[in-house]
Amino acid sequence: MKNANKTGIIAVTGATGYVGGRLVPQLLEAGYNVRCIVRNSEALDDRSWRSKVEVYKADLSLKDQVIEALNGVEKAYYLVHSMAASSNFEDLESSMAEIFSKAADINKIKQIVYLGGLGEDEKNHSPHLTSRHKVGKILSNGSTPVTELRAAIIIGSGSASFEMLRSLVEVLPIMVVPKWVTQTRCQPVAISDILFYLVSVLDNDKTLGKIIDVGGPDILTYREMMHTYAQVAGLKKRIIIPVPVLTPRLSSHWVNLTSPLPIRLARSLIDSLTSDVVVSNNPISAVLNHDAENLHNSIGRALTRVQNLQIPTRWSNSVKSQIAELPELSDPEWSGGRVLIDSREQKSLVTGKKVMSTIKTIGGDTGWFAFDWLWAVRGFIDKLAGGVGLRRGRRHPSELRVGDPVDFFTVVKVDSDSLLLRAEMLLPGHAWLEWSVSDNGNGCLVSQRAHFVPRGVIGRLYWFALLIPHSLIFNRMLSKIIHTAEHGPS
Fold first, then answer.
1. I want to staple 299 with a disulfide (CB 3.0 to 4.6 A). Which of 160, 169, 232, 357 is the partner?
2. Beta bridge partner(s), residue 260
3. In the CATH hierarchy, which fold is given to the domain comprising 9-318?
4. The domain 340-487: what is its CATH number?
5. What is the pLDDT of residues 334-382, one digit of tens each?
6. Are 327 and 306 spatial neighbours (Cβ–Cβ below 8 Å)?
7. Where does CATH 3.40.50.720 sit in the chain?
8. What pTM did the predictor assign?
9. What sign for the dihedral angle of Cα 199, 205, 209, 211?
């Protein structure tokens, strides 16, 4: 419920980032007036909440701009880092924190909420984690009260740490890893819990001037995290071989080969994995009563949307979901899991309505418009392997509704201008077929896409082994659909 009494402006830095971009709608839902301070205002144009916030363009490394951006602000979130942008990110982060602290004092801001990294101050940490702690200290040097939440790995699609975990486990059935992967302890936390804590501490006087440790209920090694991911994703248990010779720098090159993360970002993250990061003296539970999600469930939530093809594609803006672990259209290109796509478009001389009427007859007695004998062979193989095969047919020869079987597919979405089918055949991954039409005055444009989210190495090999057959089948299928819509069945 929105609270009409929350009239002060809440500034959010890092609104284009992973946490900040998910925090803004949470603040709006709680009834706050939000000002997003960004370097590039166009980066927010695709956000569904763009019209509900004030966007202020400022460079956080320039003092005058930061002072002006914080004018009239009651409280502020500091959610920025620079570890992927510069080789000397520690100096840049310290400088920006000092500027922000002074600007907050000048504008008499009541509270700064900062999300830092978990770990004890007296320990010898990586440059990344050391810089996170230093930023917290610099922000606290001013007169503005600071609430510093410290967290370890954040679980959710789009989180750099989670995407690195995803890539390693999905791609490598056997891993040679540094010894510390089997020894260093971590306390991962779901992004939904992080957002709950960030919003909850905003009006909580008990958190002012405090450093608070945040973590989920599970404390485990990174090897155990990998095994948990494999279990939730339905993969075979990974063989993980620890050796004493792999340094973090060498490991980052290995990650660079298997993961789409930028190498500098991967290196900073791996450096930080060599330290124990668990909740210690100042747990969030002493301030807030909240049941945090366990690792198994939070990974499951991050993967659910991919399994239903609610991934960052053209239709995901229309999908309303409060699950923060899921992908968003604005997430980096390297996030959300690997989605392989065969995409084709052709023009038709008839209306989109007529083409969709033809598309909706696919399967059953109509067949698949191209190489029906290959589809029959694929269905026979699937049946032999214990799958559903082609014998399910259709409920009706020309009408479809959500949940209907279409041979070894199921209707996931159907309306006047689109159809989405999910494959039920046995596959090393998740697959869909999608069609959409758009009228253009002289007929329509017909789009056809095959989506595949591979599971492990076998899934990737499966897709690339079928590139040529898929190219022939899908191209002929789309051409025959349009020909049938224009001229009728052969």
1. 232
2. none
3. Rossmann fold (3.40.50)
4. 3.30.530.20
5. 555 667 889 999 999 999 999 999 999 999 888 899 888 888 888 888 7
6. yes
7. 9-318
8. 0.69
9. negative
